[in-house]
Amino acid sequence: MMRCPNCNSKDIGKIGSHQFYCWGCFIELTVNGEKMSVYQVEEDGTLSSLDDLFFPEEEMPEVHAN
Q1: Among 44, 42, 52, 2, which Cα is nearest to 27's?
Q2: Which domain of life is it from (predicted)?
């Protein structure tokens, strides 16, 4: 089961083939193979990357999405 890297919630919804949304803290997650990217959804609907806040470049998390 996937957990949000921000709030540790398991309340994650699938919104696309590789895209997920956390209902706990309202961020969007994109999973590509073993790499996860985290985005803040802005008021106008655009996405701003939060990867630099969550994952140092050397330490990308392993993801096991079901």
Answers
A1: 42
A2: Bacteria
**Confidence (pTM):** 0.74
| Reduced 3-state DSSP string for the chain | CCCCCCCCCCCEEECCCCEEEECCCCEEEEEECCEEEEEEECCCCCEEECHHHHCCCCCCCCCCCC
Output the tens digit of pLDDT for each of the chain's 66 residues: 788 988 999 999 999 999 999 999 999 999 988 888 999 999 998 999 998 887 766 555 555 555
With a CB cutoff of 8 Å and minimum separation 6, the contacts of 65 are 2, 20, 31
